[in-house]
Design goal:
The chain has helices at residues 8-16, 32-39, 53-61, 63-69, 85-95, 110-119, 134-138, 150-157, 165-174, 185-208, 213-225, 233-240, 244-256, 285-291, 297-302, 306-323, and strands spanning 21-25, 46-49, 74-77, 102-106, 124-128, 260-263, 279-282, 330-335, 341-348, 351-357, 380-381, 384-388, 394-395, 400-404. The chain has 408 residues and is of the alpha/beta class. The longest helix is centred in the middle third of the chain and has 24 residues, at 185-208. The model has no long low-confidence stretch (mean pLDDT 95).
């Protein structure tokens, strides 16, 4: 299988040259190990995985002996299984001037992250890898970070083929797991079956203490049915026959394992009565389509949920784009008591870029009138627009454009 270059490589190399340790978190099978082993080619770097029970046992019982056996510079896979290593890594970082000594991978499980941040503060960079984005699959790379000005969007447009809804829904349905990129429908289905039954069920049992596989499976399917909607714990709990507190715990677990992404609502003291409920998205749309029983890209594209899946696609592509970029932003959505909703706010340098997401190739330009609510928020309004299936960047007014979804 040909290696697909990852957009995180640039940032990873930069951080490895600056910090003594770098942790790449993300869901299982998204390509964390493959990327690190690729970047380690030509280096004399030890590799060990804590999926190996003997290595895990040694790491937990005797971290000093572990590092005598597996010497840095080193790649340690699935480091969440032995948090006992972190204190020893800290000591070794402090004894050495060398950067990039420890390359770690793990799931972003809450307890582990707290542990890492507290023990290795100032010594470690934490980066997130997601499944393949559409531009990674196409081999497209943009020179600059995403910028919503007309000229920057037009410059991006020169690098990509015309937007094509069949192509977009093929990507949404297939998902971005490296192993399914070239799989046929039957292979893809078996892959996701195994992914849920093997990795996911094992991880939720080991990391979250969840033993009821049947109820958890129902819970997963219920989450997929709520994609791109506000989280409704009552519905999730009733469908999976569990209590609402358990539904909250399980959703937090899925978020920690990199399976779902919760988009937080925008908060502002000047605006009263804003929603406090996050919206639910799947980090890999292929897994969501599998759980929702959409058996072909065509049925998904023409089905009742296509708008929700399109929104999920845009939000997650945006998430990936910014996770790998130079800039730090905050993503939120807006909803007030009158059910007025704006799909996405990108907050950057005290500017808010408001964005609507529409599956149509020619959405109603009046959608951008909603952005006026921000004038009451004492917030600086940046450029925005409607991300949609249009083929060319087209201005709507001086601040907003129709933005083809393949430019993110």
């Amino acid at each position: 299988m040909n290696y697909i270059n990852r957009q995180l490589e640039r940032k990873f190399n930069k951080m490895s040259g600056f910090f003594k340790a770098v942790l790449v978190t993300g869901a299982r099978q998204v390509g964390k190990t493959t990327m690190l082993r690729r970047l380690a080619q030509g280096q004399n770097r030890t590799y060990v995985t804590l999926d190996n029970l003997m290595a895990r046992e040694l790491a937990k019982s005797d971290p000093v002996l572990f590092f005598q056996t597996y010497k840095p510079p080193i790649i340690i896979d699935e480091v969440q299984y032995a948090p006992e290593l972190f204190s020893q890594i800290k000591l070794m970082c402090d004894e050495s001037e060398e950067t990039g000594l420890f390359w770690l991978t793990g799931s972003q499980q809450y307890e582990m992250m707290k542990n890492v941040r507290e023990t290795l503060a100032g010594r470690i960079a934490i980066l997130e890898l997601y499944s393949l984005s559409k531009s990674e699959k196409n081999g497209t790379s943009f020179d600059d970070d995403l910028d919503f000005t007309l000229s920057a969007l037009q410059a991006r447009q020169k690098k990509v083929p015309k937007n094509d809804i069949v192509n977009v829904f093929e990507h949404i349905w297939r998902g971005g797991m490296p192993q399914v990129v070239h799989a046929d429908a039957e292979q893809r289905q078996e892959y996701y079956n195994a992914y849920v039954n093997t990795y996911l069920m094992r991880d939720v049992a080991e990391l979250g203490g969840v033993t009821d596989a049947l109820r958890f499976s129902k819970f997963l399917t219920a989450c997929a049915a709520l994609v791109a909607e506000q989280v409704n714990y009552k519905t999730l709990a009733e469908t999976a026959e569990i209590s609402q507190p358990t539904a909250r715990e399980w959703l937090k677990l899925l978020e920690g394992l990199g399976i779902v992404y919760l988009l937080r609502p925008y908060a502002n003291n000047a605006l009263k009565r804003l929603s406090k409920t996050p919206k639910l998205y799947f980090c890999d749309s292929g897994l969501c389509a599998h759980l929702s029983m959409w058996l072909t890209p065509q049925t998904l594209m023409n089905g009742a949920a296509s708008g929700h899946f399109f929104e999920n696609y845009v939000i997650i592509e945006m998430l990936k784009s910014y996770a790998y970029s130079h800039t730090k932003i905050n993503m939120t959505y807006y909803r007030d008591a009158n059910s007025k909703e704006i799909d996405l706010f990108i907050e950057e340098n005290n500017l808010i870029h408001p964005l609507e997401i529409k599956r149509s190739a020619k959405p109603d330009s009046r959608e951008v009138k909603k952005f006026a609510v921000l004038q009451k928020a004492n917030a600086q309004l940046g450029r925005g627009g409607i991300i949609c299936m249009c083929e060319e960047v087209t201005p709507i007014d001086s601040q907003n454009c129709y933005i083809p979804c393949n430019l993110i």
